[in-house]
Design goal:
Elements: H1 2-13, H2 21-37, H3 43-48, H4 51-57, H5 62-83, H6 107-112, H7 114-117, E1 124-128, E2 137-141, H8 150-157, E3 166-170, H9 172-175, E4 180-181, E5 185-189, H10 196-209, E6 213-216, H11 218-231, E7 239-242, H12 249-259, E8 262-269, E9 273-277, E10 285-287, E11 292-297, E12 300-305, E13 316-325, E14 337-342, E15 348-350, E16 356-358, H13 360-368, E17 375-384, E18 387-394, H14 404-411, E19 421-426, E20 441-442
Parallel strand pairs: 3-5, 3-6, 6-7, 7-8, 17-20, 18-19
Antiparallel strand pairs: 1-2, 4-5, 8-9, 9-10, 10-14, 11-12, 12-13, 13-14, 15-16, 17-18
Helix pairs in contact: 10-11, 11-12
């Protein structure tokens, strides 16, 4: 008690006001609420948070949607100029063409200017990206959690089927190592999908569960489709959404033939959210344009997120390649479209035992573990069964590269030596296709060709 009184006396003598603890806590709560509401009552911001408005706005004309984008961009730029150190010198925005006056924001610049990019008055949470080419950490507005991703809810409404029973074919990084089932959800980890027997077991589970909706990576879904057609298994499924990977036409056809349902190609990312998806016409991907402005420069996609006030991402290059389309979709929606996405694709490695290992878990270890902080991007190369070479490209400013044997020992904690012999190489650049596309696994061994 005497210590508390002495502290109060000291503050009074120094001229500091003294506030009771409860008053300080209430004031802190008030500041947090105020920051949480910041921008929410901007007209353009509130519209994109309104699911009923989004249901109508998809049918607006292209010009009307561009007007919405311009209104949101002006508000975002004004906020960024006033509340971040990085964007202090942003130009005035009079039209969408003025975006070109703003330099492109790369993952490297986010890494080097992380604190300067953060808004001082809007709370957020950290998001570690899992892109193909490089990794970075961003801050996402607390109001942009999956629960309030109304753009994604709009995409789900296009499926024209009840979505009560949901099957998730996903990485153990997100759903855990074990198969789990509740009355409305079936969780199938991709990391346990290694052999034809595993695929048949998964298919039998799906057949009994009869999901309205399967969400999963394109390659594991194609793995299942291959064995479904081979074994004559015909699960009853309402609709399928492929996510996080490039869905190639031959994979879509095989999945549709095996599961006898529509397959929708969804495009999103951790740091941005739900960006685009094809509609019932299954042509180009419709952009969630009330929230995102998408540009294209040398096949690189550039995004401006009009809702992330915690760390404004203005002209952000997420290192995915793709093409904007000028074709009008026959569905009649006014949303602009992407002709193609040639970005992230995760593949399989063939182990010594003849089983298939989906590499996303090992890839995420490299992306997220502090041992690999010096790595900008990675690639896997397999030319022989049971052997893989991990190619690691360091950041240009990396001062010290750890001992490669210690990195191998770390990876062997998660990958059995009975499955793979791992070799590590540090390279100046990764191997690209003739078109300049980045692929994750360099191999001519695929489960559906065995």
């Amino acid at each position: 008690m005497s210590f508390l009184l002495a502290s109060i006396k000291k503050r009074i003598l120094k001229g500091y006001p003294y506030y009771p603890y409860w008053f300080s806590r209430c004031y802190e709560l008030y500041r947090n609420i105020l920051a949480g509401l910041h921008g929410k009552f901007d007209r353009s911001y509130f519209r994109v948070w309104n699911p009923w408005f989004l249901d109508r706005s998809q049918w607006l004309s292209e010009e009307e949607i561009r007007c919405l984008q311009l209104e949101g961009l002006k508000n975002l730029v004004d906020h960024a100029r006033r509340n971040t150190r990085y964007y202090k010198g942003l130009p005035n925005i009079e039209s969408l063409d003025d975006l070109e006056k703003i330099p492109i924001l790369t993952k490297r610049e986010i890494r080097e200017n992380f604190n300067r990019l953060r808004a001082r008055n809007v709370p957020g949470f950290k998001v570690v990206t899992a892109g193909t080419v490089g990794k970075s950490t961003t801050i996402k507005d607390k109001r942009l959690s999956d629960r309030f991703d109304f753009g994604k809810q709009r995409f789900l409404s296009w499926y024209r089927t009840p979505l009560k029973r949901h099957c998730l074919l996903w990485s153990l990084y997100d759903i855990g190592k074990s198969i789990r089932q509740t009355s409305r959800h079936l969780y199938l980890p991709t990391d346990s999908l290694k052999t034809g027997e595993d695929a048949i077991y998964y298919l039998k589970l799906i057949e009994r569960f009869r999901p309205d909706f399967i969400q999963g990576y394109a390659n594991p879904l194609r793995f299942l489709a291959h064995y479904a057609l081979e074994e004559g298994i015909q699960p009853e499924v309402g609709v399928i959404q492929t996510d996080c990977e490039t869905l190639f036409p031959e994979a879509r056809k095989e999945i549709e033939r095996a599961f006898r349902c529509d397959v929708y190609n969804f495009y999103g990312s951790r740091e941005l959210g739900s960006m685009a998806q094809d509609c019932e016409a299954h042509g180009d991907l419709h952009i969630n344009a009330e929230r995102y402005i998408v540009e294209e420069a040398d096949d690189q996609l550039i995004f401006t997120d009009l809702l992330n006030y915690a760390m404004p991402l203005i002209r952000y290059e997420n290192q995915d390649t793709g093409k904007l389309s000028d074709r009008r979709c026959p569905c009649g929606r006014g949303l602009p479209t992407l002709r193609s996405i040639i970005g992230r694709t995760y593949d399989y490695l063939l182990t010594k035992k003849g089983t298939w290992m989906y590499i996303i878990f090992m890839d995420r270890l490299i992306k997220h573990h502090e041992l690999f902080d010096w790595v900008e991007s990675s690639q896997f190369k397999q030319v022989e069964k049971g052997k893989v070479t991990v190619l690691l490209k360091p950041w240009s400013d990396s001062e010290k590269i750890p001992n490669l044997n210690s990195l191998k020992r770390f990876l062997y904690q998660y990958v059995s030596r009975d499955e793979l012999d791992i070799f590590i190489e540090v390279v100046d650049s990764l191997i690209l296709t003739k078109s300049g596309k980045q692929i994750k696994v360099l191999t001519n061994l695929f489960p559906w060709k065995s």
